Amino acid sequence: MSTPLPDGQTVFVINPNSTQRVTDGIDAAMAPLRMAGGPAIECLSLQSGPPGIQTQHDVESVALPLASLARSLEARAGAFVIACFSDPGLFAVREAVKAPVLGIMESGILTALTLGQRFGVIAILDASIPRHLRAYGAMGVQSRLAGELAIGLNVTELSQYERTLERMTEVGRRLCDDKGADVIVMGCAGMAVYREPLQQALGMPVVEPSQAAAAMAIGRIKMNWHGA
Amino acid sequence: MSTPLPDGQTVFVINPNSTQRVTDGIDAAMAPLRMAGGPAIECLSLQSGPPGIQTQHDVESVALPLASLARSLEARAGAFVIACFSDPGLFAVREAVKAPVLGIMESGILTALTLGQRFGVIAILDASIPRHLRAYGAMGVQSRLAGELAIGLNVTELSQYERTLERMTEVGRRLCDDKGADVIVMGCAGMAVYREPLQQALGMPVVEPSQAAAAMAIGRIKMNWHGA
Amino acid sequence: MSTPLPDGQTVFVINPNSTQRVTDGIDAAMAPLRMAGGPAIECLSLQSGPPGIQTQHDVESVALPLASLARSLEARAGAFVIACFSDPGLFAVREAVKAPVLGIMESGILTALTLGQRFGVIAILDASIPRHLRAYGAMGVQSRLAGELAIGLNVTELSQYERTLERMTEVGRRLCDDKGADVIVMGCAGMAVYREPLQQALGMPVVEPSQAAAAMAIGRIKMNWHGA
Amino acid sequence: MSTPLPDGQTVFVINPNSTQRVTDGIDAAMAPLRMAGGPAIECLSLQSGPPGIQTQHDVESVALPLASLARSLEARAGAFVIACFSDPGLFAVREAVKAPVLGIMESGILTALTLGQRFGVIAILDASIPRHLRAYGAMGVQSRLAGELAIGLNVTELSQYERTLERMTEVGRRLCDDKGADVIVMGCAGMAVYREPLQQALGMPVVEPSQAAAAMAIGRIKMNWHGA
Amino acid sequence: MSTPLPDGQTVFVINPNSTQRVTDGIDAAMAPLRMAGGPAIECLSLQSGPPGIQTQHDVESVALPLASLARSLEARAGAFVIACFSDPGLFAVREAVKAPVLGIMESGILTALTLGQRFGVIAILDASIPRHLRAYGAMGVQSRLAGELAIGLNVTELSQYERTLERMTEVGRRLCDDKGADVIVMGCAGMAVYREPLQQALGMPVVEPSQAAAAMAIGRIKMNWHGA
Amino acid sequence: MSTPLPDGQTVFVINPNSTQRVTDGIDAAMAPLRMAGGPAIECLSLQSGPPGIQTQHDVESVALPLASLARSLEARAGAFVIACFSDPGLFAVREAVKAPVLGIMESGILTALTLGQRFGVIAILDASIPRHLRAYGAMGVQSRLAGELAIGLNVTELSQYERTLERMTEVGRRLCDDKGADVIVMGCAGMAVYREPLQQALGMPVVEPSQAAAAMAIGRIKMNWHGA
Prior knowledge:
homohexamer; alpha/beta; Rossmann fold; four-stranded parallel β-sheet; 9 helices; about 15% strand
């Protein structure tokens, strides 16, 4: 990302949790989207955020801090990505800044709609599913949803690559075989490393939502489009 | 777009009609999306296509020629965009090539879903609206549709900039005031020159669908995602 | 509400804004729902809330304070009502306390579904409508929505009873005549005084959402039902 | 229910079948909703009704008798509840009387919508499910339906408490595990005794629809709201 | 309808009201559907029915009499058509007899779905519209509904051909221009005489529902298909 | 079909593939629909069509040839049926000719909507299901879809009657038991011979779509209705 960029040309991908390891995972996933002549893509943790976004309390707790952080970055910002699958604070950030703001859930799903007819979502936690379903309803895309299932692993298990991939594969297969999914959306940020092997294992397209959102953000910067 | 690109790195934006002036308009609209390190964006007319895509016959007539053309370009292609608002042959082209293929209708609408809650579409011809509605139904996004109205200008009128902008503005305002739209999608290709003034006149975001599709295509190339 | 009640028998109706006059209006509207042997109904302002809930920022700013306030009242609480038509923090409060929690938007709409086939909503501000539409989508009840229109009065006008009733009547009539509504939901709290005259003027049922929610809360307390 | 009530202050809960044992079960379930200053809640059997409402013929046969009975009670009535999960005659009774009329199916489902994101219904008979699905469609709430399954017990088995609870639990679990329900509606009247143990067994909220309807009716009386 | 037919080969079109003039209008409309070698089409009034089906009471009052009448005709019946746009007793009659049973509302709408993308309905009475909307919801076809509007003529006006055609044309035009309908369904039986002139006046297809239902019934007899 | 018919009185059922055996199967299935005074029903293969319609390419390849063929037959045509479950070229043929045009998918499903509440579809190939789902979305009937599953037999297996019936029965049972279907649509043409035994085996109505379409076409000819 060598050469200095003019103001208003950076995509800020904000991880609403404070776990730098997650932000690092997101950052690594951005590599293919960094091009000479394209916008810089900068990944940040929300320092005041919780270690992870698991509960509704977590979701609510980051909305205004995300808006403040976005506002503080506005001079340099071309676009913002909220990098958590619950799209916390999405509409608050949109209201706070002029630049386009994309949530990874909405971007992941909108991208999936171009890759298959019925999308399945692999969630981490069962408890997040009702929240996600509300968001799909607000988006008006439920008729395209095949189903959402959680891998249900604890923190220790989630740190084990093989165990996690195995569970994701099992759940993805059930979404395909029992629910009729023909494209999968990963229902979380920071797990881009699993995308390719999961796609191989399942034999159907898998969308990593942070990449989907950043990809959309690049074009949005270039065209300078944002909501009213 | 100076430096030579590796194979498989070009976005081919194919205008399914044979009117070079339309292709030129699309090509001009691509300017902001061309980045030094980004994919080349090449705009082509379908030589065998009709002068415009107006009837269902026109739509059907270009499906397989588009698939053939895409296949012939496949070695150099990173992605394809079908640049007609009826998304003719979209699924045939997807079947024909490995690279990602995006329609401008679907991309325009998916983009609009991130810019407002209810999208309105400005069509050229009344007769296209049922065809578009079928496509929105297939996409499963009708609950987000505020309405679609046609400007209903003849070819002579469409060649008059002021007259056309005036009608688009009238129709856009009716979509907003009577139908509740808060984001507008232009229901045709090759009219990107109207986007900015229309957005100014209406005071709400206006999506030009060829740009929306090409923007999504860039990211798709970089991530190398395509349907199963 | 004379006699002392056992713990866990009070309906707390929380106005998420800090304007006591609004809370007083809500409190007055609760009169018919106060019965001997029934739960106490206590109306509170959220002291830390903004003077009104108008923006997305306002909505987000009260979510966790509402959850905290609810938790602090939990020993005495039988149920909670969030008395703002954006249902701010609804799911955060549900997560925070064991007692049932009802939003006035959801309760107002669910009640309207038993009074007519297509509900119209009279909003105060145009800018709130997209937020409301997202909520109707999340609830899955859009096919019953006839439309939502704002009265668009400024603060001075809103303080004038006749002017406000006149505008509500105009908007209500348009919802009926142009959009096909056969039941009206008032899209705000604290305006219960208009319900009866508006219903008379329109000749169709009008739902005041704070009353709708408190009414549902009473039964919920008595049956001791709450979410998982 | 000691002190005499003014006219128009009684909730009449009408069991459309003539089986007094069912009416007694409904009556017992009303206990928590009877408050000193609240409306009386009187449960009646429709004497001319069939022993149970199982077929479409049964449903149709009670519609006008219910309307007549309601009209005959109108002087004392504050509200009516039709206590059969097919909501027989709901719109005929609404047309016949001025007082509010609630069906237990609609009330049970509307209540469930505030307790979970996707409701499952436990029916008694497979043959009733298409009729219920038509009603959910008319209500416009199908996108919130996880699924409906019948316990399929015969009359003898239904009279065995343990057997019935066991089957309800099995079916409820399948609605949760296979269909994604997070709240259950009991698809019949007169079985309130199973609600609490079923909720315990399933670990998710269970709605008994007669109670849900009577609870809504109490508020409706107090506010004196009814359809146009 | 000269030659004697085997048993089970007659389409019975039952007008659920007792007004012979309406039945005569239906009967006249059947002429084009009577073919040598095809089923006989016999039109009957329900003698015990009200003079017209206007209220919910009227609808309910005919359900079981229709079932009885159908059963009494079963030996000679190949199919039944319920010739009232509220499809009264449709599911009761289906349950009562083995032969296929079609409602004119459902058949009119299903036919319209093959003639245009968005259907408009011309009702006689405003008060019937909510009942019709419930039925469209139960059918799951609301997303294809452009709108429904009533002509609102009294009995005297309805007896005046020119006045009635004029109002139908006005309402049909509003359904087209304001609501986006491209096919019209006549929301009543016995007015087939207006179909052709209305179609001419509106320049779009107009479906007369009794004819639509009888046409479907003929095929159903020939194929001997009926519900389970 | 002995006696000569006037022009414009023949139903042309066009098999878009060139396999005469399939056309023969369709032709045999038309027998019950041929009546002395009814329209002739003539079944044709599209000579230029592929041996089967399996891919999107196949679907697109026949659209304009179907339109040409229909136009060439127009003088003698009363109606057209496109006899392939993907309804290829349906809207192109409608545009090309004045006579009514019916697709077997739409007709099969519309017919199923009168025979049960939730339809299941038995497809031949998994790969066709997304295409079918898009069509159901365009039709706006997805909320009535229980599910679609493919039998997944190869060509050799498909030529074995017992093996095919066995697989259809298995898949039909799964659509009923797991997905909740109460009516089945056969998702292909030319297999009418399986309809009756499949219906017997499943105990629920089974719709053969070519027959459903031809049945609707007969009435359409007689009434002379077609799209605008």
